[in-house]
């Protein structure tokens, strides 16, 4: 592991912390073909960036990402900034010959995502790679689910039930943040967390969403401005701001293999903290997962004798399970941060092998097309069929 992979990371809030932890941890637990170096941390504010670099373990700091792209001692740019900056930074980085890891959703619009994918395709011709951070693909139970589907254990996919439930802004006094502003985030619950379940269901089933019928809602339209810029939760300050994104999204969908799906993404499901709930019913069996119990996958095998058939609760902590052997002795369990580490492991492996890491920008674009269809469907009220109310 002597060849270094010198990383410059842009942004150091919540995602920046998760990525820093992953870059630091991956080579300590996994045998990597390249040695990641936390070379440069980039942020707008010099003082805050220096404090973050000290805390998160970065060697140097910078405030101008463009200048960082000109450096010959940077191999990869890790983009952990709000969505409105992804396209500009990622395209410039790829054109400068840097590999790119970009946080999800890939972009704020299909047009941006297309431009990014075209840049990634051009860069790939020179061995420069781009990956989008749909991290949950690398939760061991999710990876196992995909494996079971690929092995035919649930047969033909009939139903997909996918929800991503959070509650961090259910309180109307929860302050504004960039995640609630359309010009920065593109959309709300839809792009921030709905994107994850769109990607996960496509990834697990190996199929694509072909059509949707959707409704979006913003329950709280005005919120206090934050006392200080924060990432997720913060404290309310003076004045109010307007929420310009959806608080919740629900949609029906059809999958390419003929299955039906329901999707829900909300930040208003009180009591649900980070509940990524997936249930997939196939012609031969079913799978069920909830991130709030993330080391467990439920599997129903339709071939079991009826008398003893039932959902099996598989605790996904055995060395034979995806990624688990790199960590603790069997049975000890993983957390939120581990999937980010697995993302680094797979990315570094692909770079060393000269292969395309997944999810690619093209995969990110495919998700963006679904988000776009959801927004168009929700805006088109002509397909909404009102119920005739009993006049009595
Ligand atoms: C906020 O809703 C958020 O941090 C998302 O942006 C992340 O992608 C998800 O991992 C957790 O929730």
From TrEMBL:
Domain annotation Gfo/Idh/MocA-like oxidoreductase N-terminal: ranges: 5-133
Entry keyword Repressor: no
Domain of life from the UniProt record: Bacteria
Keyword Oxidoreductase on entry: yes
UniProt keyword terms in alphabetical order: Oxidoreductase
Domain GFO/IDH/MocA-like oxidoreductase, residue spans: 144-287
Protein name stated in the entry: Gfo/Idh/MocA family oxidoreductase
